[in-house]
Design brief:
By secondary structure, the chain is of the alpha/beta class. The strands form 8 sheets. It has a 7-stranded mixed β-sheet. A 6-stranded parallel β-sheet has the order 5-4-3-2-1-11. Strands 24-25-29-27 form a 4-stranded antiparallel β-sheet, with helices on one face. Helix 6 crosses helix 8 and helix 10 packs parallel to helix 11. It is globular. The structure holds alpha-D-galactopyranose (GLA). The site of alpha-D-galactopyranose (GLA) has 8 residues, from loops.
């Protein structure tokens, strides 16, 4: 589904149940002043919506929704199931989640529920149905926000039952499960389904196949809970689009491709994880992932209102940065700029978390930024109209993404526990970003003919089908770049024998027979200015040639990076973890060799992030100026922010421009005075 609202959705989580009537009135006035058009209501309001079991008290909500609507503000209505009320916990203690160490959690926070517990599922269906029946036809309803950030893992008895049922459906017989899990080792052979447990704390290491199956099961189980609520909403007759907000991975409990299939529009919450310029690459990473998951326009459901929380500290975002980052998501396909939360809480657990209306109130400088942002979003609103083919990006590089890679590398006592999937993927994306090259993320098996380069970072388990698909892609003329720890095992994390990477030896034309892990901070020289870290391999060339050779270390004189002719294309193997600056150079070279150029010539060297968003009748070049000197933009187009013709337009450091250009046309950037 292509989600096209009438304008860019602007606003955020609104929790009016915290406030008195006068504050709510002031809120609506302030929303109008800032041109806010969307509020997300009810995310954690279950105890107020259903104060006693089966007693739904929704008049207060009707009143707020009506008042918002009368003020011209639409809403996403949330089902509040991420936070069951205390009465529920007391009545159904078995519906509280159990940690892997056996501790059953109590209420007092949020996200405390056992997703497989029948009582929790029934109560969730009940509140979803009650809300849908009452508000499903409300004229202000923009869509359903089901639950919030699914992600509580449960290891308790209900989970055990559901896990066994999932395993039966997957494996059919215990024999197949025992074989897939390699249970002959350490006397783990199962003689009955009832003997199988979630990976609860045990004396030593878990069985890795059991652990990854539990992650897959948990994702499916949460998706089943989502779908039940969705079905209740549809059964009530409400056809408004539905979504749940994924938490963009810093932790990862969902298999996002399957989840995205079940969304009317994919939405995420995204919180920057660093204060410095790397936050800008993080925005791009989040935006590209989410656009790719849903294959089209998406919603930024939450971002941080005023600051960045990193390393246990709270940093304030500048006004320019708030605007640049907000437009950064829109450049990459977001139809919204929504925040957590509208008004900063006076009490409760997140009282220091930012709000669009800060503690100081609506006369503050922080709120002036929000008003400024509202004006800009209004002036660029035409970008929400997608092109007829629905494709928002012209990216010609794809990065393979799958949660299996993430979960596999979480297995304890891998040869190097410092290696994580997310770091490898993000470092790769960052390198391409720094080269000004736009990227998509790709689902294994998806159509890939539009990509000139396909990168495979640390996809450790790999099916035969995925390997064949990569091979077909290369044969047809594509360039595949595969990192260490990809294609090493089958889907059950069993290592494929005969040399690494078992699934991809033929495609890569190499056989790697041994690994050697580096010490923390140790680097290995790969020649021509490149350096590897963390991981090295003894690579034998079969049909490939060496592009870089280890200059030192255990494998001195042997290939480190190789290239193999594969049909009309080629397959490159990188047997070590490139440090970031080496990676930047390496991918910039790959881009040049593949004939890729930066989106807007001159942008990278001027410190400008340039992103092309394809629109209905034109393309939009988002110029996000992260640099520190004014730039001049030359070319034919209109800047929707300043309404100036772009030829000769000056964009000051820190500011943004959104230039409408004819399809396929571009502009040039030069530094002021150059
Ligand atoms: C999440 C939640 C919000 C809020 C923010 C704060 O994304 O959805 O309710 O807790 O984090 O960072």
């Amino acid at each position: 589904m292509t989600y096209t609202p009438s304008t860019i959705l602007f606003g955020g989580d609104y929790n009016p149940d915290q406030w008195d009537a006068a504050t709510v009135s002031e809120d609506i006035e302030l929303m109008k002043r800032a041109q806010v058009n969307t509020a997300t209501i009810g995310v954690f309001s279950w105890s107020k919506m259903e104060p006693r079991e089966g007693v739904y008290e929704l008049d207060w909500l009707a009143d707020v929704l009506d008042r918002l609507h009368a003020g011209g503000i639409g809403f996403f209505l949330a089902t509040p199931t991420a936070s069951p009320p205390p009465w529920f916990t007391v009545a159904y203690p078995d519906a509280m989640p159990v940690r892997s160490d056996g501790t059953r959690l109590s209420h007092g926070s949020r996200d405390t529920y056992a997703v497989s517990a029948p009582a929790y599922r029934a109560a969730s269906r009940g509140i979803a149905r009650a809300l849908a029946e009452r508000f499903g036809g409300h004229p202000g309803l923009r869509g359903w926000h089901i639950h919030n950030e699914y992600g509580t893992l449960d290891y308790g008895p209900h989970a055990a039952l559901a896990f066994r049922a999932w395993l039966r459906a997957k494996y059919g017989t215990l024999e197949a499960l025992n074989a897939a899990w390699w249970t002959a080792f350490w006397s783990q052979g199962y003689g009955s389904w009832d003997e199988i447990l979630p990976p609860r704390d045990t004396q030593y290491l878990h069985n890795p196949a059991q652990a990854i199956d539990f992650r897959r099961f948990s994702s499916d189980e949460m998706l089943a809970a989502y779908t039940e609520q969705f079905d209740e909403i549809r059964a009530s007759g409400s056809m408004a689009p539905a979504t749940t907000n994924f938490m963009l991975p810093t932790w990862n409990h969902l298999e996002q491709w399957a989840w995205s299939d079940a969304q009317d529009v994919v939405s995420i919450d995204h919180y920057l994880d660093s204060r410095g310029p790397d936050g800008d690459t993080h925005v791009a990473y989040g935006g590209d992932l989410t656009r790719s998951w849903g294959g089209g326009p998406w919603l930024l459901m939450e971002q941080n209102a005023t600051g960045i929380s990193a390393d246990g500290r709270w940093y304030t975002k500048s006004s320019d940065r708030t605007i640049r980052n907000s437009l950064g998501y829109i450049a990459r396909g977001s139809q919204s700029s929504l925040f957590f939360q509208w008004r900063q809480s006076a009490g409760g657990s997140e009282q220091w978390h930012g709000g669009l209306v800060p503690h100081a109130g609506g006369s503050s400088r922080a709120f002036a930024t929000i008003e400024r942002l509202g004006g800009i979003l209004n002036s660029i609103r035409e970008v929400v109209e997608p092109p007829a083919d629905g494709r928002l990006s012209d990216a010609e590089v794809g990065i393979l993404w799958h949660a299996d890679g993430w979960w596999a590398l979480e297995t304890p006592q891998m040869p190097n526990d410092a290696l994580t999937y997310s770091d490898e993927v993000r470092s790769t994306h960052r390198a391409l970003w720094r080269a000004g090259i736009e990227t998509d993320f790709v689902r294994p098996g998806a159509p890939v003919d539009r990509y000139r380069v396909l990168v495979v970072p640390c996809l450790y388990p790999m099916s035969e089908a995925t390997a064949a698909w990569l091979s077909d892609y290369a044969s047809a003329g594509g360039t595949v770049v595969v990192s260490y720890l990809s294609g090493v095992s089958d889907e059950s994390l069993q290592i494929i024998g005969g040399g690494f990477p078992g699934r991809l030896r033929d495609l890569l034309g190499i056989m790697s027979e041994q690994i050697d892990v580096l010490a923390p901070h140790e680097t290995v020289d790969l020649g021509e200015g490149l350096a590897g870290t963390e991981w090295t391999e003894r690579v034998n060339l079969l049909t490939a040639e060496a592009l870089h050779v280890y200059q030192e270390g255990s494998f001195a004189g042997l290939p480190a990076i190789t290239s193999n002719v594969a049909g009309a294309g080629r397959a490159i193997y990188v047997s070590t973890k490139l440090d970031q600056s080496s990676r930047d150079r390496f991918f910039a070279d790959i881009a040049v060799q593949a004939g890729l150029t930066e989106t807007v010539p001159g942008a990278v060297s001027a410190g400008v992030e340039a992103v092309r968003r394809r629109g209905r009748d034109a393309d939009y070049l988002f110029l996000l100026h992260h640099g520190d000197a004014p730039i001049i933009v030359d070319g034919e187009g209109v800047d929707l922010v300043s309404r100036e013709v772009s030829s000769g337009l000056t964009v000051e450091a820190g500011e943004t421009a959104v230039i409408r250009v004819d399809r396929g046309h571009t502009v040039r950037i030069r530094l002021d005075g150059a």
